[in-house]
Amino acid sequence: MSGILKPDGLRGIAMSELRCDLLLHLGRAVAQAIGRNADHQPVIYLCHDPRRSAEPLEAALCAGICTGGGIAKCLGVLHPGAMALLMTAEDADCGIALSADDAPYEINAVRLFAKGGLPMTRDRLDAIASLMPASAALPAKSHRNCGTITHEPDAAARWLRLAGMRLNVPQENPERRLRIAVDCAHGAASPSAELFFRQLNAEVLMLHRTPDGMNINRGGVCHTDSLAEVVRAQYCDAGFAFDGSCGRVIAVDETGELIDGSRQLAIFCQAMLDDAQSPQSAELLLSGAVTGDRTNLGFLRYAREHSIPLTQTQTAPRAVMEMMRERSALIGFDGVGCICFPDLPAPDGMMTAARLLRIMQRTGRTLSALAEVMEPAPQVTVPVPIAPQWREIWRNDPEIYGYIKECRTALGAKGRLMIREHPREPLLTVTLEGSDFMRINELALVLGENISLTAGGSSGESPRALI
Fold first, then answer.
1. Whole-number mean pLDDT of the chain?
2. Residue 326, CA atoms < 13 Å, CB-side half-sphere
3. pLDDT score, position 118
4. 347/227 same-domain check
5. Do 91 and 212 have their domain in common?
6. What b/e readout covers 13-24, taking b as 16+ CB neighbours within 10 angstroms?
7. Stretch 174-202: mean pLDDT, rounded?
């Protein structure tokens, strides 16, 4: 089990890979590991998105938690960032979220949170893994000291109050009213997004907010065309698209142009710098920001021009937040879509969108004007299929290494090449950035073809030169 329980939890096809019996054992191990040296029964919060598999998997977790002597408090459909924020204010010893970001409904995932909503440490994860049945499981609790299950339908309302306090929403003389469109991707944001943005004095048009268990991520960050269309047609000031877990947000300005995470990061940094009276301005120049290694080159140029120190780390919210705490950084970005703030224990797409909205309200500027602070570098990403036996070993192949080296030479000092392997499928994603879109598009396609030829995705053709 120690090889299965990763820092970001468990993930797989619901019921066949992420099985109920596995989650029953996991729930018991979590309760026993958390409660082993405690003087009380461990209180464990659970939340989930609206996937069809969520409730049976949650039931299995709850049964395991009770078997291990824990108290399971089911918060219902709620995004992980909201549960994590509740955990900062309420007496929960641990949190478990069943939510799989932008994956289709057949996939599900388990994420574990430590006290205060923070990511669980590697030591604690190892302690949980050591109590799984394949290791040295402890005996189950008896009928006298087993745990209990409670359902808390007011969890979303509690989060709304707490989030409003974090955002300093004025109760009287509210700031200017903006018209926004919100795409929930039929995910965890669906029940609460409208009320959340209305408390920010926004007029809200809702899209993709009727989950049926199988339509999650139809819309949202994966499919933003309909959101951009509504923003333009309904004369909205902005639009916000979430993924199924509501950790990521893509903004759309009043013209329908997408404002990705790198540009959002620049907007937040510029807002701090513009407020010279705020201590945040000096702190940003001292402590800087943390970014994942896939952050757009345009932001790296922006940070350099404004003397903002940058620390780069892995493309993962967990890694970004750990580095932020280590460096006392004021803001972070995982390079894909999650903005991280030091006062939030986990990325929260709705809180990120709300803070963008608050900047628009305070400054009176449009989102397109705010986004002008950063010129994004053109970027191209192409999928590259490889043969299953080439997974991992493509990295050490001299022929593929030669193609990559040739591409980097063609890009020059002002460009960048990134290659990622899909965690579950024999697929690479090749991403190029540079100053000339047509050129990097050509390079990306040729590099992808050459890698695929070598790594078994195609045959019978000769590789093409990149230079």
1. 91
2. 10
3. 92
4. yes
5. no
6. ebeeebebebbb
7. 93
354 and 217, same domain (yes or no): yes
Question: Does any domain span residue 299?
Answer: no
Q: Is the predicted pLDDT of residue 1 greater than 50, yes or no?
A: no
pLDDT band with cut points at 50, 70 and 90 for residue 314 = confident
Task: Spell out the residues 6+ positions from residue 393 whose beta carbon is closer than 8 angstroms to its own.
Answer: none
446 inside domain? yes
Is 173 in the same domain as 223? yes
Residue 81 located in a structural domain: yes
The larger pLDDT score, comparing residue 176 to residue 280, is at 280
Segment among 27-41, 163-177, 196-210, 282-296 with least mean pLDDT: 163-177
Q: Please report the pLDDT score of residue 142 as a whole number.
A: 81
> Pairing relation of β-strands 178-183 and 148-151?
unpaired
Answer yes or no: do 63 and 185 share one domain: no
Angle at 150 between CA 144 and CA 153, to 5 degrees: 175
State which residues form the domain around 450.
379-454
Give the domain CATH number at 401: 3.30.310.50
- Are 25 and 132 members of one domain? yes
| Whole-prediction pTM | 0.90
pLDDT in tens, 84-102: 999 999 989 999 999 999 9
Count up the domains in the chain and report the number: 3
